[in-house]
């Protein structure tokens, strides 16, 4: 059975993106099975829920022996903000203060800091500027996430950019369409 995590935008609306989008409605219905379309090495997923960003594009790399997740990258588009949110998951045992860096043949991000860790790994969850997304879309076929282990040794986790640009365009178009249908957030009750 394949487990589909909540779309990144829905997760971030409760956290970081909520600070940036005060009028965003949190998910109002329980998530069901997403509508998934494979484009290159990416999955474009749209979830049946009310959300400012109901769709994301997702790639997961698993250890071929243990079948455990080694890296996952999820990118969502938040139409109302014209911004992107990214979630990158890496294994536990990383040097938290070092963060991680995304690198391609023509793009190197600043250090992206971890927001949280749980039993499944550590996560970078943040708003990503549109210029970085455009750079990734214009890069070659491969990218890597450079992490630093607790002992200080750097490791590269490689992922594919095959289909990235087409998956992004499809995801953003679907997010715009589905977000139009999302119910607006109810105004907050005045404090007494």
Short description:
The chain has 192 residues and is α+β, with helices and mostly antiparallel strands. The chain contains 4 helices and 10 strands, in the order H-H-E-E-E-E-E-E-E-E-H-E-E-H.
Walk me through this protein's architecture:
- With 192 residues, the protein is of the alpha+beta class.
- The protein has a single domain, classed as Immunoglobulin-like.
- 19% of the residues lie in helices and 33% in strands.
- The chain contains 4 helices and 10 strands, in the order ααββββββββαββα.
- It has helices at 8-13, 16-20, 130-137, 164-180, and strands at residues 35-39, 42-46, 55-62, 69-78, 83-90, 101-103, 116-118, 121-128, 142-148, 154-160.
- It has a 7-stranded antiparallel sheet with strand order 1-2-3-4-5-8-7. A 3-stranded antiparallel sheet has the order 6-9-10, with no helix packed on it.
- The chain is globular and about 45 Å long.
- Residues 1-7 and 9-30 have low confidence and may be disordered.
